[in-house]
Amino acid sequence: MHDIVIVGAGPAGLTAAIYALRFNKSVLIIEKGTFGGQITYSPKVENYPGFKEMSGNEFADLLVDQVISLGGEIELDTVTSVEPGRVSCESGNIYEAKAIIIAAGSKHRQLGLANENELVGNGVSYCAVCDGAFCKGQDVAVIGGGNTALQEAVLLSDICKSVTIVQNLPALTGEKRLSEQLDKKDNVRIICSSIVTELVGNGKLDAVKIKNTESGSEDVLDVDAVFVAIGQVPENKAFESVCTLDNYGYITADESCVTGTKGIFVAGDCRTKAVRQITTATGDGAIAAVNACRYIDAL
Ligand SMILES: Cc1cc2nc3c(=O)[nH]c(=O)nc-3n(C[C@H](O)[C@H](O)[C@H](O)COP(=O)(O)OP(=O)(O)OC[C@H]3O[C@@H](n4cnc5c(N)ncnc54)[C@H](O)[C@@H]3O)c2cc1C
Questions:
Q1: What is the pLDDT of residues 94-121, one digit of tens each?
Q2: Which among 2, 50, 177, 183 counts the fewest CB atoms within 10 Å?
Q3: Alpha-carbon gap, residue 171 to 190, rounded angstroms
Q4: Candidate list 61, 77, 127, 139, residue with the active-site label
Q5: How far is CA 256 from the centre of its chain?
């Protein structure tokens, strides 16, 4: 039995592990994908205090190293269900723990178009850091107008022939500094108040059809790839029997990171909260770990 099992090795889960290990608790983290979580998709992080600039991968490596050097264990597996004291995984492994911290984060939102899944890897991507290099010299579109979309557009504009940003709202919503950076690029075009209605292509993306939501006019963009950056959705299905989810699927808990179920805590982007960033995820990780340790000490 471990003192604490943590679901997810993103910034929240890894920070929770660092705090719990420093309280002399035994800790196992179970991660189904990438050690470091979503931030590994970010080419440049410039808003984490103490680090002027770093890549998401650099940050993730530092956190993982710190956890391992403190004696934390990390397993690659997918957690399929959680109940007080027990975590079950896809591999068939079941882990017992005095306390469980759910730090499962969120994943990219899809456009929801008919052939979207079929075209993933063949012109449809959700990560410019991962796939941008395959689009060297090509015409691409970025769907979305928030910070992630703008960061991806900046990155792609240095590699691709042209980048067209398609935003459903009348204006971009990302940081002004990023829009100003894009304004200076002559290979970047911004189309607002428009939605993607069709991904054109059979086995490989050839173009996207867009529709202006104000005028109703339609257009076709001949692009080799689209990068979809329209937000995130939580991955909390496996936990709905032990945690209350809000209307958007986030686990309901306040700043204490305590859920309604004894011995189960929640941290990071998968929790109800107003700001989803690495600062808030690491803050949650610390709080969830401290409260989980106090819970264990009182058993
Ligand atoms: C492209 C991009 C750029 C960003 N840039 C910035 C930035 O510049 N600054 C900033 O502050 N924030 C940025 N963010 C947001 C930041 O990455 C997140 O707020 C932060 O990663 C949340 O941390 P987390 O640990 O809560 O969740 P996540 O990072 O999502 O980690 C959760 C982990 O849990 C794992 N997991 C999920 N379900 C299971 C399961 N059932 N079993 C096992 N493992 C599971 C996932 O695989 C994942 O690794 C960016 C996000 C993206 C996508």
A1: 999 999 999 999 988 999 999 998 998 8
A2: 50
A3: 9
A4: 127
A5: 22
Using CA atoms, how far apart are residues 232 and 291, in angstroms rounded to an integer?
27
**Spacing, Cα 38 to ligand 1 middle (Å):** 3
130 flagged as catalytic: yes
Q: Are residues 121 and 222 in the same domain?
A: yes
- Residues 10, 101: one domain? yes
Active site residue 160: no
Q: Is 61 a catalytic residue?
A: no
224 and 123 both lie in a single domain: yes
The Cα–Cα gap between 174 and 197 comes to 23
| CATH number, domain containing residue 150 | 3.50.50.60
Percent of the chain with pLDDT over 90: 88
Q: Do 38 and 88 fall into the same domain? A: yes
What's the token pair of residue 105? 């984060």
| This prediction's pTM | 0.84
What is the domain range of residue 19? Answer: 2-108+232-297
Mean pLDDT in residue range 61-68: 98
